[in-house]
Amino acid sequence: MPTPVAITHSSTSVLSSNRLVRNTYALLSLTLLFSAATCALSMVVDMGRGTYLASSIAALMLIWFVLPRTANSASGIGVVFAITGLLGFGLGPILSMYLKLPNGPQIVMTALGGTGAIFLGLSAYALTTKRDFNFMGGFLFVGMLVVLGGALLNIFLAVPAVSLALSAVVVLLMSGFILYDTGRMVNGGETNYVLATVSLYLNIFNIFISLLQLLGITSSDD
Amino acid sequence: MDMWLKILSAVALGAMLVMLLPRAKQALAASPVATPGDWRAVVVPLVAIIAFVAVLMAIV
Q1: Global pTM?
Q2: Is A118 in the B-facing interface, judged by CB distances under 8 Å?
Q3: First vs last Cα of chain B: how many Å apart?
Q4: Where are the beta strands (DSSP E) in chain A?
Q5: How far is it, in rounded angstroms, from Cα B53 to Cα A31?
Protein backbone atom coordinates (compact mmCIF):
# COMPACT_ATOMS: atom_id res chain seq x y z
CA MET A 1 0.00 0.00 0.00
CA PRO A 2 1.48 3.38 -0.97
CA THR A 3 2.43 5.66 1.90
CA PRO A 4 0.80 9.12 2.17
CA VAL A 5 4.18 10.69 1.28
CA ALA A 6 4.37 8.63 -1.92
CA ILE A 7 0.79 9.55 -2.85
CA THR A 8 1.48 13.25 -2.25
CA HIS A 9 4.67 13.10 -4.34
CA SER A 10 2.87 11.29 -7.17
CA SER A 11 -0.08 13.71 -7.24
CA THR A 12 2.31 16.70 -7.17
CA SER A 13 4.13 15.24 -10.16
CA VAL A 14 0.85 14.69 -12.05
CA LEU A 15 -0.29 18.24 -11.22
CA SER A 16 2.96 19.79 -12.48
CA SER A 17 2.82 17.65 -15.61
CA ASN A 18 -0.79 18.73 -16.25
CA ARG A 19 0.17 22.38 -15.72
CA LEU A 20 3.07 22.02 -18.16
CA VAL A 21 0.83 20.46 -20.82
CA ARG A 22 -1.85 23.14 -20.34
CA ASN A 23 0.66 26.03 -20.49
CA THR A 24 2.41 24.53 -23.51
CA TYR A 25 -0.78 24.12 -25.54
CA ALA A 26 -2.02 27.60 -24.55
CA LEU A 27 1.26 29.19 -25.67
CA LEU A 28 1.36 27.01 -28.79
CA SER A 29 -2.15 28.16 -29.79
CA LEU A 30 -1.18 31.82 -29.36
CA THR A 31 2.08 31.41 -31.30
CA LEU A 32 0.28 29.63 -34.15
CA LEU A 33 -2.20 32.52 -34.38
CA PHE A 34 0.64 35.06 -34.27
CA SER A 35 2.53 33.10 -36.89
CA ALA A 36 -0.56 33.08 -39.16
CA ALA A 37 -0.82 36.88 -38.71
CA THR A 38 2.83 37.49 -39.69
CA CYS A 39 2.40 35.08 -42.62
CA ALA A 40 -0.63 37.08 -43.82
CA LEU A 41 1.37 40.30 -43.41
CA SER A 42 4.23 39.05 -45.59
CA MET A 43 1.72 37.90 -48.22
CA VAL A 44 0.00 41.30 -48.23
CA VAL A 45 3.26 43.24 -48.60
CA ASP A 46 4.41 40.68 -51.22
CA MET A 47 7.81 39.83 -49.76
CA GLY A 48 10.55 38.54 -52.08
CA ARG A 49 11.98 35.07 -52.63
CA GLY A 50 14.80 35.31 -50.10
CA THR A 51 12.40 36.06 -47.23
CA TYR A 52 11.98 32.42 -46.21
CA LEU A 53 15.73 31.84 -45.98
CA ALA A 54 16.43 35.13 -44.17
CA SER A 55 13.60 34.56 -41.68
CA SER A 56 14.64 30.96 -41.07
CA ILE A 57 18.27 31.96 -40.41
CA ALA A 58 17.15 34.71 -38.00
CA ALA A 59 14.83 32.26 -36.21
CA LEU A 60 17.62 29.66 -35.97
CA MET A 61 19.93 32.26 -34.41
CA LEU A 62 17.27 32.99 -31.79
CA ILE A 63 16.72 29.26 -31.14
CA TRP A 64 20.43 28.49 -30.79
CA PHE A 65 21.79 31.56 -29.00
CA VAL A 66 18.95 33.49 -27.31
CA LEU A 67 16.31 30.91 -26.30
CA PRO A 68 18.58 28.78 -24.07
CA ARG A 69 19.49 31.91 -22.04
CA THR A 70 15.94 33.22 -21.72
CA ALA A 71 13.83 30.04 -21.50
CA ASN A 72 13.60 30.23 -17.70
CA SER A 73 12.55 33.89 -17.56
CA ALA A 74 9.52 35.89 -18.70
CA SER A 75 11.50 37.21 -21.68
CA GLY A 76 11.51 33.63 -23.02
CA ILE A 77 7.87 34.09 -24.04
CA GLY A 78 8.83 37.15 -26.11
CA VAL A 79 11.59 35.12 -27.78
CA VAL A 80 9.10 32.35 -28.63
CA PHE A 81 6.82 34.91 -30.30
CA ALA A 82 9.81 36.36 -32.18
CA ILE A 83 10.83 32.89 -33.44
CA THR A 84 7.34 31.86 -34.51
CA GLY A 85 6.61 35.30 -35.96
CA LEU A 86 9.76 35.14 -38.08
CA LEU A 87 9.00 31.62 -39.32
CA GLY A 88 5.43 32.66 -40.16
CA PHE A 89 6.71 35.74 -41.98
CA GLY A 90 9.06 33.56 -44.04
CA LEU A 91 6.19 31.26 -44.96
CA GLY A 92 4.28 34.09 -46.69
CA PRO A 93 6.10 34.04 -50.06
CA ILE A 94 5.94 30.22 -50.18
CA LEU A 95 2.18 30.24 -49.62
CA SER A 96 1.78 33.00 -52.24
CA MET A 97 3.67 30.80 -54.71
CA TYR A 98 1.45 27.77 -54.00
CA LEU A 99 -1.73 29.85 -54.14
CA LYS A 100 -0.84 30.90 -57.72
CA LEU A 101 -0.98 27.24 -58.86
CA PRO A 102 -4.26 26.16 -60.61
CA ASN A 103 -5.38 24.14 -57.55
CA GLY A 104 -3.24 26.13 -55.12
CA PRO A 105 -5.94 26.99 -52.54
CA GLN A 106 -6.89 23.30 -52.37
CA ILE A 107 -3.23 22.28 -51.84
CA VAL A 108 -2.74 24.85 -49.06
CA MET A 109 -5.99 24.02 -47.27
CA THR A 110 -5.33 20.26 -47.54
CA ALA A 111 -1.81 20.70 -46.14
CA LEU A 112 -3.18 22.86 -43.32
CA GLY A 113 -5.97 20.41 -42.44
CA GLY A 114 -3.61 17.43 -42.78
CA THR A 115 -1.05 19.03 -40.46
CA GLY A 116 -3.74 19.78 -37.88
CA ALA A 117 -5.12 16.24 -38.05
CA ILE A 118 -1.64 14.66 -37.72
CA PHE A 119 -0.73 16.87 -34.76
CA LEU A 120 -4.02 16.41 -32.91
CA GLY A 121 -4.09 12.65 -33.56
CA LEU A 122 -0.52 12.01 -32.42
CA SER A 123 -0.82 14.36 -29.41
CA ALA A 124 -4.03 12.64 -28.29
CA TYR A 125 -2.32 9.25 -28.70
CA ALA A 126 0.78 10.29 -26.70
CA LEU A 127 -1.28 12.00 -23.98
CA THR A 128 -3.67 9.08 -23.49
CA THR A 129 -1.11 6.25 -23.62
CA LYS A 130 1.32 8.22 -21.36
CA ARG A 131 4.04 6.00 -22.82
CA ASP A 132 7.66 7.05 -22.53
CA PHE A 133 9.00 7.60 -26.06
CA ASN A 134 12.50 8.54 -24.88
CA PHE A 135 13.94 5.40 -26.48
CA MET A 136 13.36 7.05 -29.90
CA GLY A 137 15.63 10.03 -29.14
CA GLY A 138 18.84 8.72 -30.74
CA PHE A 139 16.98 7.35 -33.77
CA LEU A 140 15.14 10.65 -34.38
CA PHE A 141 18.22 12.88 -34.06
CA VAL A 142 20.34 10.64 -36.30
CA GLY A 143 17.44 10.64 -38.77
CA MET A 144 17.44 14.44 -38.72
CA LEU A 145 21.19 14.48 -39.43
CA VAL A 146 20.69 12.17 -42.42
CA VAL A 147 17.84 14.35 -43.75
CA LEU A 148 19.91 17.54 -43.34
CA GLY A 149 22.84 15.90 -45.16
CA GLY A 150 20.52 14.78 -47.97
CA ALA A 151 18.94 18.24 -48.22
CA LEU A 152 22.39 19.84 -48.33
CA LEU A 153 23.43 17.63 -51.26
CA ASN A 154 20.12 18.15 -53.05
CA ILE A 155 20.51 21.94 -53.03
CA PHE A 156 23.10 21.50 -55.76
CA LEU A 157 21.87 18.24 -57.34
CA ALA A 158 18.23 19.47 -57.46
CA VAL A 159 16.72 15.99 -58.07
CA PRO A 160 12.90 16.23 -57.66
CA ALA A 161 12.60 12.57 -56.56
CA VAL A 162 15.11 13.16 -53.74
CA SER A 163 13.21 16.28 -52.71
CA LEU A 164 9.97 14.27 -52.62
CA ALA A 165 11.59 11.47 -50.61
CA LEU A 166 13.10 13.95 -48.13
CA SER A 167 9.69 15.61 -47.60
CA ALA A 168 8.09 12.22 -46.92
CA VAL A 169 10.85 11.32 -44.43
CA VAL A 170 10.51 14.72 -42.71
CA VAL A 171 6.75 14.14 -42.20
CA LEU A 172 7.52 10.79 -40.52
CA LEU A 173 10.43 12.15 -38.46
CA MET A 174 8.40 15.13 -37.23
CA SER A 175 5.51 12.79 -36.40
CA GLY A 176 7.99 10.79 -34.33
CA PHE A 177 9.20 14.01 -32.70
CA ILE A 178 5.59 14.92 -31.75
CA LEU A 179 5.30 11.58 -29.90
CA TYR A 180 8.78 12.05 -28.36
CA ASP A 181 8.23 15.67 -27.24
CA THR A 182 4.71 15.03 -25.93
CA GLY A 183 5.92 11.91 -24.08
CA ARG A 184 8.70 13.98 -22.49
CA MET A 185 6.14 16.55 -21.28
CA VAL A 186 3.91 13.87 -19.77
CA ASN A 187 6.73 11.86 -18.18
CA GLY A 188 8.76 14.75 -16.76
CA GLY A 189 11.60 14.75 -19.33
CA GLU A 190 10.71 18.35 -20.22
CA THR A 191 9.70 20.78 -17.49
CA ASN A 192 9.92 24.10 -19.35
CA TYR A 193 6.80 25.05 -21.32
CA VAL A 194 8.68 27.65 -23.39
CA LEU A 195 11.09 25.03 -24.75
CA ALA A 196 8.26 22.50 -25.15
CA THR A 197 6.25 25.05 -27.18
CA VAL A 198 9.15 25.77 -29.54
CA SER A 199 9.76 22.04 -30.08
CA LEU A 200 6.11 21.33 -30.90
CA TYR A 201 5.84 24.46 -33.07
CA LEU A 202 8.87 23.36 -35.14
CA ASN A 203 7.34 19.89 -35.57
CA ILE A 204 4.08 21.39 -36.84
CA PHE A 205 5.88 23.92 -39.08
CA ASN A 206 8.06 21.23 -40.70
CA ILE A 207 5.12 18.88 -41.27
CA PHE A 208 3.16 21.71 -42.93
CA ILE A 209 6.07 22.70 -45.23
CA SER A 210 6.74 19.06 -46.19
CA LEU A 211 3.06 18.33 -46.82
CA LEU A 212 2.84 21.43 -49.02
CA GLN A 213 5.79 20.16 -51.04
CA LEU A 214 4.43 16.59 -51.29
CA LEU A 215 0.97 17.77 -52.35
CA GLY A 216 2.40 20.40 -54.71
CA ILE A 217 4.70 17.93 -56.50
CA THR A 218 2.10 15.18 -56.83
CA SER A 219 -0.67 17.50 -58.00
CA SER A 220 1.61 19.08 -60.66
CA ASP A 221 2.14 15.60 -62.18
CA ASP A 222 -1.58 15.34 -63.11
CA MET B 1 17.16 29.03 -57.35
CA ASP B 2 19.76 31.81 -57.58
CA MET B 3 23.33 30.76 -56.82
CA TRP B 4 23.58 33.07 -53.78
CA LEU B 5 20.38 31.60 -52.37
CA LYS B 6 21.81 28.09 -52.88
CA ILE B 7 25.04 29.01 -51.12
CA LEU B 8 23.22 30.66 -48.21
CA SER B 9 20.88 27.65 -47.90
CA ALA B 10 23.87 25.30 -47.90
CA VAL B 11 25.59 27.37 -45.19
CA ALA B 12 22.41 27.36 -43.07
CA LEU B 13 21.96 23.58 -43.47
CA GLY B 14 25.65 23.01 -42.71
CA ALA B 15 25.32 25.10 -39.54
CA MET B 16 22.22 23.10 -38.55
CA LEU B 17 24.21 19.88 -39.00
CA VAL B 18 27.03 21.21 -36.82
CA MET B 19 24.62 22.42 -34.11
CA LEU B 20 22.58 19.20 -34.14
CA LEU B 21 25.56 16.82 -33.99
CA PRO B 22 26.28 17.16 -30.22
CA ARG B 23 22.54 16.89 -29.47
CA ALA B 24 22.36 13.69 -31.56
CA LYS B 25 25.40 12.21 -29.76
CA GLN B 26 23.85 13.09 -26.39
CA ALA B 27 20.47 11.61 -27.41
CA LEU B 28 22.16 8.41 -28.64
CA ALA B 29 24.04 8.03 -25.37
CA ALA B 30 21.07 8.90 -23.14
CA SER B 31 18.28 7.01 -24.94
CA PRO B 32 17.02 4.08 -22.87
CA VAL B 33 16.82 0.68 -24.55
CA ALA B 34 13.36 0.00 -25.99
CA THR B 35 11.31 -2.61 -24.17
CA PRO B 36 9.21 -5.19 -26.07
CA GLY B 37 6.23 -3.42 -27.62
CA ASP B 38 7.81 0.05 -27.58
CA TRP B 39 8.56 0.14 -31.30
CA ARG B 40 5.16 -1.32 -32.16
CA ALA B 41 3.57 1.58 -30.24
CA VAL B 42 5.40 3.96 -32.60
CA VAL B 43 5.17 2.05 -35.87
CA VAL B 44 1.37 1.66 -35.72
CA PRO B 45 0.61 5.44 -35.60
CA LEU B 46 3.36 6.13 -38.16
CA VAL B 47 1.83 3.64 -40.60
CA ALA B 48 -1.50 5.41 -40.04
CA ILE B 49 0.24 8.72 -40.90
CA ILE B 50 1.66 7.21 -44.11
CA ALA B 51 -1.82 6.00 -45.12
CA PHE B 52 -3.33 9.40 -44.24
CA VAL B 53 -0.74 11.32 -46.32
CA ALA B 54 -1.28 8.90 -49.22
CA VAL B 55 -5.03 9.68 -49.06
CA LEU B 56 -4.30 13.44 -49.02
CA MET B 57 -2.02 13.07 -52.06
CA ALA B 58 -4.74 11.14 -53.90
CA ILE B 59 -7.39 13.76 -53.05
CA VAL B 60 -5.46 16.81 -54.30
Answers
A1: 0.93
A2: yes
A3: 26
A4: none
A5: 25
